[in-house]
Every structure is written in C-alpha cells, then in structure tokens.
Amino acid sequence: MAENKIYEKVENCVKAIREVTDFVPRVAITLGSGLGNYANQIDVKCEIPYSKIPGFPVSTVPGHDGKFIFGYVGEVPVVCMKGRVHYYEGYDITDVVLPTRVMKMLGAKILFLTNASGGINYNFEAGDLMLMTDHISIFAPNPLIGANIDELGTRFPDMSEVYDKDLRQIIIDTAIENKIPLKMGVYAQLTGPSFESPAEIKALRTMGVDAVGMSTVVEAIAANHMGMKICAVSCISNLAAGMGDPLSHEDVQKAADKTGPLFEKLVTECVKKF
Ligand code: HPA
After folding, report:
1. What's the half-sphere exposure (Cβ side, CA atoms, 13 Å) at 136?
2. Which residues contact 241 (CB under 8 A, 6 or more apart)?
C-alpha cells in the first residue's frame, strides 16, 4: 500500500469500484452543466453512486448529484462522471481531482472534460460551445501541491500542451461535419462560488481569457500530470458579469440545458472517433 495518504485514498476508491465492476474504460468523460442527460447516449453496463465509494467526495450543489456511469459510446468503452465536486464546496483540492485520478487508474487513457462558463470574448454568445485551446490556472490552487505522487507522475510536469492537438483536431472536424458551431479559446478557472465582478472580467479579458468558470483546469492539471490525453469543451451559458444581465445559478443551468442536445451530439460523435 502506498505511503502517501492522498494516493492511498485513490487506491482505496479504485479497489471499491473493482469490487463492483471489472469494466475498463478507454475514455473518461466529466459531464458539466448541460450534459445532465448524457447517460441517454451510453449503452450503460454499470452505475456506481459516489456515495457507495468510501472517501469519495460527494457534491453539495443541487443538480450535481453524482455517480459513475460505465458503458459504451458506439464501440468505445467509457466511464462518465455525472456530477463533480467543486473547490468552492470546501473540499481539499486533492479531493477535487481524486475522481480524475481514479478514472485514470481504472484504465482511461483519454479525458474529455466539459463545463459551463461565462463568455468574456466579445464574439461569444450565450449557448455557444467553446473548444478549450489552453487554460489559466493561476487563480485556483494547484492540485499537485504537496509531496509528489511519483506513482502518478513527475514533480514538475510540463503544461505546454495540456489539450491534445490531435483530439482538438478531431473535435474541430466533427463539429464541421455535424454543422455544430464551435468557438475556440482560453478558459480560466476561478474558485467561485461568487461570480466575478465586472472589473475582474475586464482584467481577465486583458489577460487573454475567453471564458471563465469554476472547474476543469485543476482536473486537467492532475490528468496531465498522469500523462492522460485531454480535451475540453465549454458551454458558454452566459455572458460574463458586466456584459449582460446579472447572473444566477438557475439561469446558467437553464441556458446550459438548452444547448444540451447539441453538446451531447458533439461529445458523442467525437468520442466514437477517440
Ligand atoms: N462565471 C463563473 N463561472 C460560471 C459562469 C460565470 O459567468 N457561468 C457558468 N459558470
């Protein structure tokens, strides 16, 4: 058993899952707002509620109820996270990335991250889908702080191409083939839970941020540390603070749900090619 407590927790979760299923996924998909019904796209073989996995972080946000869904998208074996925890819920950042580490240890080679975000780029509209080309992580705690887990990866991992070029090209081609409009840009993760102020949005735009949210980047860093191939698509659920109406979680959820069918189509058609 590992000496590192964080790694030991990951191993225990993997062990608990392996007592239920021997399913080996190729692609791990983390479902954000708007993809709540994604299970409909999966030939489901097994579901495991997070609450059945000892030590596994369980979300406190309404609409983020959590379970792993194992099954096939086309011929591709996937594990889907329906619901994820966020740092603003009060979890240690290592717990926020624990599920990502678990999915890698179950066999996943590719990670497809999704989320909802506020659009900062003036060319974006609510309802747009944005392929993440890069990220800004400096406003969120780094999930790799602490003793390095050598079993997972190196102390100082390179982050010069977190979002895999080949996967990005597949997503671009698939969007074109299916006539799904797709924007591209840089996503910044802030901690939340408060939405940003207009001055913060202006500052982020100056820094080169196209969309802002409260998830995804820490997961991408942990996955990159472990050598996973990563891609991410964000649903621009609203224009960021100061660019439109005042923000509410309910409106964000509603807008993301509206884009849901298109988002589902894009994810499904891409994963079939992964
Ligand atoms: N800001 C931060 N997170 C978000 C937003 C936003 O405007 N919309 C959806 N998630």
Report:
1. 19
2. 118, 195, 196, 197, 198, 200, 201, 247
- Could you tell me whether strands 229-239 and 110-119 are parallel, antiparallel, or unpaired per DSSP bridges? parallel
- Structural domains present in the chain: 2-271 (3.40.50.1580)
Q: pLDDT per residue over 13-70, tens digit each?
A: 999 999 999 999 999 999 998 788 888 899 999 999 999 999 999 877 665 569 999 9
Top mutation candidate among 84, 187, 196 for ligand 1, by most atoms within 8 Å of CB = 196
pLDDT range class, residue 214, cuts 50, 70, 90 = very high
Digit-coded pLDDT (tens) for 153-166 = 999 999 999 999 99
Give me the residue label for tokens 């820490």.
Answer: 218
Burial (0-12, 13-18, 19+ Cβ within 10 Å), 206: exposed
Question: Which residues are registered as beta bridge partners of 110?
Answer: 27, 229
**Residue 246's pLDDT is what?**
82
Minimum CA distance residue for ligand 1 atom 3: 213
Burial of 68 (0-12, 13-18, 19+ CB in 10 A): buried
Q: Is the pTM value of this prediction over 0.85?
A: yes
Residues in the ligand 1 pocket, defined by CB under 6 Å: 116-118, 195-196, 212-214, 237-238, 240, 247, 252
Q: Where are the alpha helices (DSSP H) in the chain?
A: 5-18, 93-96, 98-105, 165-177, 198-207, 217-225, 249-271
